[in-house]
């Protein structure tokens, strides 16, 4: 587990500045939801925390380490994407083991980690299947399995449920929350869905156009929105 600090982070693409100096402190063990309209910079911010984008300005700290100049593999994070990004030619077991193999863990260590994650995610009976033989919800669980086998200090989720149908989305929300309650891993979860934010977050960060409009618990945002944008976005009567 670890806290995450985003300190005056700026990102530009060419002449376009898309993050205008973001400051954010994520607490150890917290489930933080980043919410905001499409294009406001949520994925960019998450990718900077992951180390998948060059940083234009500012610093990122994970635990006690400034990681600004470290590659993703040295940041003790695991990221789950919207499109799962499973390897189609690998069985579930090998999809989940892949990062551990790259990290040259021992075979028994890998087996233990995969079996443990499979147990947590109810995937034990699916370990020998290929991704094409799974439902959307099962694929999403494998994507989460690939993240938890690594036992990272921080989980980063980028709209992990947006490809699922509405009913499955509700079920998976509950699964992800249960997983968090069990593992207590610091989590930063990106969505553009207010309901998802309100039902899942310990605290919500509302973004608009590359700035943070407000940070607070779901109740605080609902009761005391900082401005009209937050009020209408969260859906409270303004
Ligand atoms: P969100 O995840 O909130 O929908 P993004 O972080 O994907 O938003 O994008 C924020 C802004 O940055 C958008 O205006 C988007 O067009 C722009 N952007 C994202 N990635 C790139 C890129 N690789 N090159 C140029 N502009 C980009
Ligand atoms: Mg995005």
From TrEMBL:
One of the protein's GO biological processes: carbohydrate transport
Q: Which GO terms describe its cellular component?
A: ATP-binding cassette (ABC) transporter complex, substrate-binding subunit-containing
Location(s), subcellular: Cell inner membrane
- Per the database entry, which stretches of residues form a coiled coil? none
> Is RNA-binding among the key words of this record?
no
This protein's membrane topology, according to the annotation, is: Peripheral membrane protein
- Keywords, comma-separated and alphabetical: ATP-binding, Nucleotide-binding, Transport
Which part of the chain is the ABC transporter domain? 4-234
The molecular function GO annotations come to:
ABC-type transporter activity; ATP binding; ATP hydrolysis activity
Family recorded in the similarity comment = Belongs to the ABC transporter superfamily.
Supply the name of the protein.
ABC transporter domain-containing protein
Organism for this UniProt entry: Devosia geojensis
